[in-house]
Amino acid sequence: MSLETMLIVAAALFAIGLYGTLARSNLIAVLMSIELMFNAVNLTVVAFSRYVAPLALREEIGSVLTGQVFAIFIITVAAAEIALGLGIVFAMYRNSETVNLTEANQLRH
Amino acid sequence: MLSFQDAVFWVLAVATISAALGVTLIKDLFRSALLLAVVFIAGAGFFALLSAPFLAVVQVLIYVGAISILFIFAVMFNQNVRESNLPNRMQILAVLVSALLLVALVAVAVGADWRLIPEEERSKVELAQTRSVSIVAEETLAAEGFNSAESRENAQQSGLADLLISDFVVPFEAVSLLLLAALIGGLALARSRGG
Q1: Measured between alpha carbons, how far is B10 from A6 in angstroms, rounded to an integer?
Q2: Among A15, B12, B56, B88, which one is most buried in terms of CB atoms within 10 A?
Q3: How confident is the prediction for chain A on average, in pLDDT?
Q4: What does the DSSP assignment read for B10-34?
């Protein structure tokens, strides 16, 4: 386990999430893929805080926790995002009886 | 010979990647949701390995406990769950874009000259990271190279909670506003039209 392997695992997770976001036609599946990408970013941030020396390391030992604080904020934002995303799923289902993104074309007609 | 940490890392890595592939490729959306929970649990394992125990607990509480359950509820919006996670018409483009991104990220990860934490600071940093939610005895700190009383004091006051209400207080308040806005927005979106 090293910084590079950790980054590669997170990059693979992010790429899979991106593929899912672009290539799936179900709104819930797209939201799941976005969560995968959030997780990959969290892993990257925490891996950096574990392995890479911050410039302030000598003066202030607390600077090694910056990455973890970032991850906490990302988790909070992801929770807010998913609450709104599922609210949109609910509204879309109520309006058009489907959660299929290829059928979400009311604005076109 | 693999160390214990390496063995756990590789098990988690294989579990994460294969479960993530399952999330995006399996047609049954309910199984996708369950595999997403597997990805989240493996993420908590990674956090524990990366000396971030608080994040591991938060990951289990928020992602596994709340977000996975929300997704499993949302799966009920599909008429035909077994065939619900279908691909759209952008397969080739999507594979191309994500493969390019993966290559670029891996090239940066391998090629860059990372300024790693020096070995002699390693155990000190690890102590500061893992003890982020607990108080450490003065003797332990002294044994880990916090020599002066001032530096020990400094280390005791640099936990996650202290950082959140000192250096990061503005984003902390902004996030609380964001959560309030998300709460109101979620209610407004999910409210039925009549009431």
Answers
A1: 10
A2: A15
A3: 87
A4: HHHHHHHHHHHHHHHH-S-HHHHHH
Residue A105 near chain B (CB below 8 Å): no
For residues B18-29, give the mean pLDDT: 92
CB contact under 8 A, A11 and B162: no
User: With 80 as the cut, is the pLDDT of residue B137 above it?
Assistant: no
Residue B132 has pLDDT above 70, yes or no: no
> Per the CB < 8 Å rule, is A25 touching B87?
yes
Determine the residue of chain A that is closest to B174 in CA distance.
A73
Q: What count of other Cβ atoms lies within 10 Å of the Cβ of residue A74?
A: 16
pTM, whole model, 2 decimals? 0.88
In A, minimum Cα distance to B51 occurs at A50
Helices (H), B62-168: 68-74, 91-111, 119-130, 138-143, 149-156, 160-164
Tokens representing residue B147 in the block: 């020599």
Which residue on chain B is closest to A14 by alpha carbon?
B102
Average pLDDT, integer, range B162-166: 81
Mean pLDDT of chain B: 85
**Residues of chain B neighbouring A68 (CB-CB closer than 8 A):** 52, 54-55, 129, 132, 160
Q: List the structure tokens of A84.
A: 């709104």
